[in-house]
Amino acid sequence: MEDICRDIFQAHQDTIKVKKEAVGIKNLINIYNATLKLSNTKGFHAMTLRDLAKETGLSLGALYSYFSSKEQLLGIIQEQGYQLTSRILTGALEGVTTPEKRLSTAIRTHLYLSETMQPWFYFFYMEAKHLGKEDQKKAITSELYTEQLYTGILEQGVKTGAFRSHNTLLTASVIKAMLQDWYLKRWKYSRRKVGVDVYADFVCDMVNTYVRP
Amino acid sequence: MEDICRDIFQAHQDTIKVKKEAVGIKNLINIYNATLKLSNTKGFHAMTLRDLAKETGLSLGALYSYFSSKEQLLGIIQEQGYQLTSRILTGALEGVTTPEKRLSTAIRTHLYLSETMQPWFYFFYMEAKHLGKEDQKKAITSELYTEQLYTGILEQGVKTGAFRSHNTLLTASVIKAMLQDWYLKRWKYSRRKVGVDVYADFVCDMVNTYVRP
DNA sequence: GTCTATAGTGCGATAGAC
DNA sequence: GTCTATCGCACTATAGAC
């Protein structure tokens, strides 16, 4: 969390009026956490800056030292998320060579990441349509990028004979759908005390059963 | 569409000030279509009643002859959707006895229904969190009801030996996730020219492969 | 760096003419 | 049954004190 906010602090020094890094990062963490909490309960649009001021303990004026408009606040959070996701996914797959291992690593990494950053992932999904035209394209690119990652692994597997021949694009799509369900319906799974490990095993099992020769 | 609106017209004669059924239904269709169109593009909260007036061709004052508040408009659409979904699903399964047939019928009916009523389903999913506390409970009940339907079919199949023993609750969850992906990501599937039949075959195939003995 | 106070805008909802 | 006109309110964003 602190790392994310340090990145943002340094990347947006033009719009962030606060100069001391320690103060800036502390408040950014506060603001983003509050934004995610409020947005994920009632929606970003329904969250007013007065709500946000109350939740953070900052004043309206102080908030505007950290972003130039409500819309920009939305954009910043989204953008940071895509970068982080693709960076971590790509990193986790480095050095993993066999298709079976790559598939299971990608699925598990994605699930564990969305587990620790659940509010962020939920936010990306639900607020994507409220973005400006420019940012909306980035959202679509991000969705297709991770899907492409799975398609690539599956096709590699078909080629090497590790997987049987099948519709890799549709398989990748439903893998994504299953991963997304994990962070979109957290209320359901936590109520049932289904942990991320159990869910990860299940998804890997179902996909493996389907694609194995 | 006309049937749905006739149901609503008759069920809400207390809040709908228009008395002539022909006029009432014609405008209700107009209003709900416009609401779905605008909400699904920019979100229900971001849609103003002035947007809605422009889209329907009605005035602000006229709109209020068909609902008592913006919030109630949201509630009416949601409620009607649940009733329709459960009615159609239950009806489709009537007389279908073997677990294999029941499973495939449920999946296909759900997909075909969400295909013809895509804007409604998308709306239910994305706007559920903006509902009042009362209506939110109904949304959760509805989600769990359809899931329960799949769990029931799967358990019956395990008992009769048609399916192997497996985690039926998680299987039902991911079936729902796959069905939801169909109407949540329509832009993706239609861009790729994947039709509902192809998708339905795929989902049935994947689930069957997983649960067969 | 953060505050309070407020300007300016656009909303949901209503009243009353037609 | 539908319209126009308008009220009161809550919002985003800013200006200036501390």
TrEMBL record, chains A, B:
Iron keyword on record: no
A GO term, aspect molecular function: DNA binding
Superkingdom of origin organism: Bacteria
Family annotation (Pfam families): TetR_C_24 (PF17932), TetR_N (PF00440)
Membrane-spanning parts: none
PROSITE patterns: HTH_TETR_1, HTH_TETR_2
The HTH tetR-type domain, residue ranges: 25-85
Key words of the record: DNA-binding
Gene3D superfamilies named among the record's database cross-references: Homeodomain-like, Tetracycline Repressor, domain 2
DNA-binding region(s), residue ranges: 48-67
Family annotation (SUPFAM superfamilies): Homeodomain-like, Tetracyclin repressor-like, C-terminal domain
PANTHER family, per database record: ACREF/ENVCD OPERON REPRESSOR-RELATED (PTHR43479), ACREF_ENVCD OPERON REPRESSOR-RELATED (PTHR43479:SF11)
Protein's UniProt name: Transcriptional regulator, TetR family
Species whose genome carries this gene: Desulfosudis oleivorans (strain DSM 6200 / JCM 39069 / Hxd3) (Desulfococcus oleovorans)
